[in-house]
Amino acid sequence: MKAFLSPASRLAGALEVIPSKSSLHRALFCAALAKGKSSVGPLVQSRDVLATLDALRFLGAQTQPESGSRLEIHSEGLCPRGGDIDVHESGSTLRFVIPLLLCSDLPCRVIGREGLARRPLGPYRELFSRPGLEYREGSTGCLPLDLRGPLKSGDFILRGDVSSQFITGLLLALPLLKGSSRILLSTELESADYVAMTLETLAQAGIVVKPIQAGEVTGYGGYLVPGSQSYRAGRYDAEGDWSAAAFWVVANTLGSRVSLSGLRSDSLQPDSQVTRICAESPQEIDLSACPDLLPILSVWAGLCGHPVRLRGCARVRIKECDRVMAMARELNAIGGRIRELPDGLDIEPVSAYEGGLVNGWNDHRVVMALAIASLASRSEIVIEGAQAVDKSYPGFFDDFKKLGGSCHVE
Q: In sequence order, which residues have a C-beta less than 8 Å from that of residue 280 and are 6 or more positions away?
């Protein structure tokens, strides 16, 4: 699919921000692990959320639509059925579900698609290569993944500078085990805000997790998770998505006037930092806590009027694509002045982008960032692979046009 975006559009209007994918993933898993009936919403029908719904049904939950955009979940707790589970292209679904599958002694195989099947799972390999567990990766060290438990409580030592999704997966599963467990961090925790989101949702579900202070056991702290806990069924409300809002926030810095609603000003979502970054316009930005902002901030940085260095982003080289490489290549192709760094980008200012044909790299955030670049382009931008937005924000181009953007998708 190609998107044709006319140059120098100005967006204006009011927009209700879509629900946070990060918030939804956590709420859906907690609801599925609770005995009884829960309500989760509002729901966005993105590919990643649909992958999580498939996973919840594999774990034994039943789902049915409620009124509006909410979902009703009926569950008897964790009851995986064994066999093959397809997590599609969702990294969160994959990393959240692995420890839960290992709580059972039923054999299962996890499969995935596209780039996810190539993303390494080293932290889990190190944790789960222990007696009594089967944890066998494919020949490339990635998916497919053969699993068989049961997982037992104990100490789980994990680096804090890997994806927080590994920590969240453990936090979801360990309360269900007999006996207390500890997650001990061997480095500083980079994505602390995402872990805080998990802890907030767990607390709503009645799950107790106690912090371990730095120096108490290791130099970097961790979490004590009492065992034999029960998840509480109830109503889970997903907050608005700051990751999606970031594209419209940057659009406003380029002359648009988009009024956003549905966002929490006190949100724990790390991507909420986008408003501060754009307002302060620093020359060096550490994105280690919010690396998903790299695509849209690279567009903003080229137009902010001074050189900018984006750093702390090495992990986004193994997302849906190598986002560091992709943004450097595509923005340079339309007149940007960008140099790749091992963990980020050095960006020199330009007065505008020149337009042209760009590739979306099958990455939703790359596609949306390039679409926003058209607002400051001298000629048309054509994005190949525009359908990638379906992964997180299937209505992105509809909203772009609703706000007055000149866009044709075919």
A: none
Distance CA 32, CA 16 (A): 27
Taking the model in full, what pTM does it have?
0.95
Longest dimension (CA), the chain: 63
Do strands 222-225 and 210-212 pair parallel, antiparallel, or not at all (unpaired)? antiparallel
207 CB burial (10 A radius; 0-12, 13-18, 19+): buried
Angle at 327 between CA 323 and CA 328, to 5 degrees: 115
Going along 53-149, which residue ranges are E strands?
Answer: 62-65, 71-76, 83-86, 108-111, 134-137, 145-148
Radius of gyration of the chain measured on its C-alpha atoms = 21
Contact predicate 221/185, CB 8 Å:
yes
Mean pLDDT of 384-393: 97
Going 122 to 125 to 128 to 129, the CA torsion angle's sign is negative
In contact, 310 and 347? CB cutoff 8 Å: yes
Mean pLDDT of the chain: 95
Residues with catalytic roles: 292
Block residue for tokens 């898993």: 29
Report how far residue 52's alpha carbon sits from residue 49's, in angstroms, rounded to the nearest whole number.
5
What's residue 67's pLDDT?
A: 82
Query: Per-residue pLDDT for 334 more than 80?
Result: yes
- H or E element: which one contains 49? helix 47-58
The token duo for 125 is: 């390999």
Reference 365, options 243, 217, 279; nearest CA is 243
Query: Which pLDDT score, from 0 to 100, does residue 329 have?
Result: 98
The angle formed by the CA atoms of residues 147, 151 and 152, to the nearest 5 degrees, is: 165
Q: Using CA atoms, how far apart are residues 403 and 113, in angstroms rounded to an integer?
A: 33
Q: Indicate if the pLDDT at residue 140 is higher than 80.
A: no
Question: E strands within 144-244?
Answer: 145-148, 155-158, 181-185, 210-212, 222-225, 235-237
* The pairing of beta strand 308-311 with beta strand 337-341: unpaired
